[in-house]
Amino acid sequence: MTNNINNENEIITYMHSDGFYVIRPKQLNIIPIECPICTRMMSDADDAAAYRKHECCHDCMISWVEPNLEKWNSGCRPLQSDVVAKRVDLTSRIIDQFLI
């Protein structure tokens, strides 16, 4: 397999064993299935945009990032107990909407 790294464009090119070339970005910006903060499934474009900007889902961005942007940018994250309480509250609100 022949590897060629083009640092100028941050692209990796290599020849597959079947004879074709594979070209991909050096850094793949893959969005995880679950939010690393609340573990809810990433579900839409809002979640993807929030992850690219703050590495969390849209709901976490609204709940934790926007009110504390400076702390978030310095590495501070919510306590797991606060995240669980917020998730329980959100789930109960969703269930209440269906019961009304």
Briefly say what this structure is.
By secondary structure, this protein is an alpha+beta fold.
Number of strands: 3
By helix and strand content, what is the structural category?
A: alpha+beta
Helix content: 40-55%
Overall 3D shape = elongated
Strand content: 5-15%
Number of separate structural domains: 2
Between the first and last Cα atoms, what is the distance in angstroms? 62 Å
Largest sheet: 3 strands, antiparallel
Name the average pLDDT: 85
Which regions are unreliable across 5 or more consecutive residues at pLDDT < 50?
A: none
Strand order of the largest sheet: 1-2-3
Report Rg. Answer: 20 Å
* Topology pattern, helix = H, strand = E: EEEHHHH
How many helices?
Answer: 4
Structure, described:
The protein has 100 residues and is of the alpha+beta class. The protein folds into two domains: 1-28; 45-99, no CATH class. It is built from four helices and three strands; from the N terminus they run βββαααα. The protein has helices spanning 45-54, 58-65, 69-73, 80-99, and strands at 3-6, 11-15, 21-25. The protein has a three-stranded antiparallel beta sheet with strand order 1-2-3, with no helix packed on it. Helix 1 (45-54) packs across helix 2 (58-65). The chain is elongated. The mean pLDDT is 85.
Descriptive tags:
elongated; 100 residues
Write the layout of secondary structure elements.
Elements: E1 3-6, E2 11-15, E3 21-25, H1 45-54, H2 58-65, H3 69-73, H4 80-99
Antiparallel strand pairs: 1-2, 2-3
